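To the wet lab folks,

You asked to see what we're planning to order before we commit. Fair enough. Below is the target structure as tokens, and below that is the sequence we designed to fit it. If anything looks off to you, flag it before the synthesis order goes out.
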């Protein structure tokens, strides 16, 4: 389970006549639309919102919860909650965009990787639609063409974030049936970085001169 995201906090929209409180999930939806919502499916370079300053809140004011203790934030993280906190005295930001996937060491707890996986599933379905019913290809020809189809479909799609490798193959059951094949699409993604260990070291000025 990773195709879900829980967003906490609410606020009031800036530059809007609507005065009631709304969830900050609208901010993420807007950012995702700008970055991932092009009609050609290509993620727009420069619109990634997991980097500063685009990870800052720009649509809302009067956010209902602006501070939680580190202990509470750890609990929120464990249950999959996304929140905002102060970036500077008068601005707020999303420190991470986390899915509900509960393995911190997995790349699947990143919203961006999850969205890529959703699209890759669609690419796989399109591959089936394009090749189902074909009776003029050998198994090797089918493997080559399906792999090429997937590679072309994902080329330059995800703003250089991932390495994607299609693998079309035939299991023993596929060979015995004669009418089926298998497609595995591998995605290699970086881990989301969220924790920094900070240390300060005080030294004598004489130590610098040595």
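Sequence we intend to order:
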């Amino acid at each position: 389970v990773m195709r879900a995201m829980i967003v906490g906090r609410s606020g009031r929209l800036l530059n809007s006549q609507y005065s009631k409180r709304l969830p900050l999930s609208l901010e993420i939806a807007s950012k995702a639309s700008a970055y991932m919502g092009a009609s050609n499916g290509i993620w727009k370079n420069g619109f990634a919102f997991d980097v500063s300053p685009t990870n800052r809140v720009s649509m809302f004011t009067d956010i209902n919860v602006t501070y939680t203790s580190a202990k509470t934030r750890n609990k929120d993280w464990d249950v999959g909650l996304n929140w905002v906190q102060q970036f500077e005295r008068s601005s707020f930001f999303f420190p991470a965009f986390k899915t509900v996937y509960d393995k911190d060491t997995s790349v699947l707890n990143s919203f961006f990787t999850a969205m890529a996986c959703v699209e890759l599933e669609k690419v796989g379905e399109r591959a089936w639609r394009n090749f189902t019913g074909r009776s003029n290809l050998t198994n090797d020809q089918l493997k080559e063409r399906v792999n090429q189809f997937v590679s072309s479909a994902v080329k330059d799609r995800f703003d250089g974030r991932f390495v994607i490798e299609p693998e079309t193959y035939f299991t023993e059951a596929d060979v015995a049936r004669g009418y089926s094949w298998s497609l595995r699409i591998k995605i290699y993604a970086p881990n989301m970085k969220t924790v920094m260990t900070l240390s300060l070291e005080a030294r004598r000025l004489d130590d610098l001169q040595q």
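Structural context that might help your review: The chain has six helices and nine strands. The longest strand covers residues 163-169.

Thanks,
Computational group
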